[in-house]
Design goal:
With 147 residues, this protein is an alpha+beta fold. The chain is built from two helices and seven strands; from the N terminus they run ββββαβαββ. It has a single domain, classed as 60s Ribosomal Protein L30, Chain: A (2-Layer Sandwich).
Length: 147
């Protein structure tokens, strides 16, 4: 891995019976990635209750780095990966309206890592809860470009 944004990270270990990434032809889909670091959940809770918007943005940065690391299973240097879609789930209190601001933190990371290949379609969705009390979960869909 050559990008400093991902230096020192490893592919997240699944928390159950699934793969961190699945390839079908030239399409890659990651499992939902939460802000786990070395198996420990960072930022558990709901945004607007136990956590602030800044906490959620930090959590999104961690979760998307985990998702990018999952993509390295199929393209170690991420040189051929072009993101198609990112879905960002945010566990927040009723009335929270800054889902896009949380997702923006993740988008910033993918553009720093992949450049223009990281600019993708995106959804930011509010939910009542997520696995492990995570405040954010992120899924990526990508294309492995042929050279």
């Amino acid at each position: 891995m050559t990008h400093s944004e991902l230096a020192g990270l490893s592919v997240p270990t699944p928390q159950g019976h699934y793969r961190p990434v699945r390839r079908c032809g030239d399409i890659l889909a990651t499992a939902g990635m939460t802000p786990r670091v070395r198996g420990e959940m960072r930022y558990p809770g709901r945004v607007g209750a136990e956590l602030s918007l800044d906490d959620a943005r930090d959590a999104a940065r961690i979760a998307v780095r985990n998702a990018l690391m999952a993509l390295t299973v199929e393209d170690e240097g991420l040189q051929r990966v072009r993101l198609l879609r990112m879905t960002v789930y945010v566990s927040a209190v009723d009335g929270f309206a800054e889902h896009s601001a949380v997702a923006d933190a993740a988008s910033d990371v993918v553009v720093r890592v992949l450049g223009e290949r990281g600019a993708c379609a995106r959804s930011a969705i509010g939910v009542a809860s997520l696995p492990g009390r995570a405040c954010v979960e992120i899924e990526l869909t990508a294309l492995v470009e042929q050279r």
